[in-house]
Design goal:
Helices cover 30% and strands 24% of the residues. By secondary structure, the protein is of the alpha+beta class. It folds into 6 domains: 91 residues, Phosphorylase Kinase, domain 1; 183 residues, Transferase(Phosphotransferase), domain 1 (Orthogonal Bundle), CATH 1.10.510.10; 63 residues, 2-Layer Sandwich (Trypsin Inhibitor V, Chain A); 71 residues, Trypsin Inhibitor V, Chain A; 52 residues, 2-Layer Sandwich (Trypsin Inhibitor V, Chain A), CATH 3.30.10; 63 residues, 2-Layer Sandwich (Trypsin Inhibitor V, Chain A), CATH 3.30.10. The N terminus is likely disordered.
Amino acid sequence: MSETPTDQMIGRLIDGRYQVRSRIARGGMATVYLATDLRLERRVAIKIMHGHLADDNAFKSRFIQEARSAARLAHPNVVNVFDQGQDADTAYLVMEYLPGITLRDLLKDYGKLTPEQTVDILEAVLSGLAAAHKAGIVHRDVKPENVLLADDGRIKISDFGLARAVNNNTATGQALLGTIAYLSPELVTRGIADARSDIYALGIMTFEMLTGEQPYVGEAPMQIAYQHANDTVPMPSSKVTSTPRELDELVQWATARDPEQRPRDARVMLDQLLDGRGHPGAGSPGQQPTALQPTMMVPGITNAAANAETKLLTAALHDGTSATSVLGPMTAAGVIPQSPDNSTALATKARRRKNRGFWLFALVLLIATALGSTGWYFGSGPGSDIAVPTVSTLSPSDAAARIDSVGLKSNESSVYSADVPEGVVIGTKPKDGTRVSKDSTVNVVVSLGLQPITLPPLAGLSQEDASAQITTLLAEVGSVDSIFSTSAEADTVISASRASDDGDVSEGGDYFQGLKVNLVVSLGAIPDVVGSSVAAATQALADKELLAISGEQTYSDSIAEGKVVSTTGPEAPVRAGATIILTVSRGPEPVQVPDVVGKPWSEAKQILSDAGLKLDYNIFADAAPGLFTVTKVTPGSGTSVPRNSNVKVNFSA
């Protein structure tokens, strides 16, 4: 199976039920999308396994295992799993959608958290893990990326993709799983994980929340793994001196290299955290330090000793007698021998906690009963409200029938609309989905179509003024065609037309709001470059965004050589970017002096004049032209001279 590209997955209908909307995140095994459950009409998060992993049975089994593991949990701090299946070549998992961010995003934005924020998040994650551990499930990938912080304040743990049911020693099978920065020493050295491995990862995560950095870093994963297996995690206060002592001890307890020295599961660690809840910073009056487990700080104390201590305290709490504890209260320095008085105080404290728990349970039961009764009254009883149905795009009659069918009344109003065709329902007031009491009246808003307007004369206005006139009437400016014109100044509207039917509205006319008006705007006249040099003509045309090229040259009696005689452009209308061809003068056209020697003066004069030459001669020859004969012409016959040149004529009688 090949991996489905992201742009192909969006919009796809999975298993005939889940409409994929957009991508949320991408992980190593799968991509998570936002989707709509069309059957239950709710938003969900759907995790779709990468196509290239489908042929790997181990990955496929792990993906299915996530659904089974998470589906066994029903806890406020665990992301709910709704469904799992396979559609053609796509394996998917449907989960609760929580809009918000991850703990990793929060750490990126703020660097580190306050002790109070850390305790809040830690309590929620421990509650979720406690439910998993109670169900016999080890998460095996506890890290900030898998802690979701919802916009409404809920905190949930997700991604049980590496989860596995617990036996005495749960091994990875083939290779280490989970993120290397949070792997416990036993996973690194022996590939074995149990609930205490989750506790270790949670301790690393707590260190990161308090300090803004992970305790172990390295250039290669093996360097980090080596430190997990051989080093002791430092106290957070070594990085942030304001860290409370209780949280220092909690991190050290959770990250002990020997699993036997850690809390046995999340419930034990949660109970320890709750004992000091509300006192994350020791030192204020009346504030008690967090009571730590006997095995938390003293590696030499065995589980047997700890169990003996627990049994002794339990017996004392039940019969009210005092007991001498095997171990004293825990401090950073070690064990202090405990007196019988301390044991009696613990028993008294336990009885008070038990009584307080009973009254809290009774109060919760009373509140739940009241909320249930109120919910029935307003949800399905006499006080229930009705959601206004969606009727947009329906006809008015169909909309009224649908509203009447749910126990509401309807009336009709009309408005102009540029988006909804005439006679179609735009919506309702109140809006669809709003809950109203029975027999309430819902206003059905029907479109009258486009609102008529009258455009003012636009020809002769500047483009800016014409655009303002159009938009003021709630129409739109469509295309703007700029052309050269000798009849209108630059930036002046030459003509205007309706985009819908090309009707001319240059002098104003009827139209509709929301539709476009096309404008033709003048660029002014094309520059007159006749008589200019080629360089000057080219620059003048370029200033108007016209391209000038030199064309043929021609003789001109009136335009000096090298100057522009005329221009040739495309047929009107001429737009910016058009090409203008320049015709350049070669100066006056040359002529050859005719051979008129020996001809009568009258005939010779006519021939020379017709050739375009001027005559230099004795004017007395004109008195009797028939008596004189041309004897010499200067320049001589056949010589090329410019037209209108002077020719000297000699003649005799």
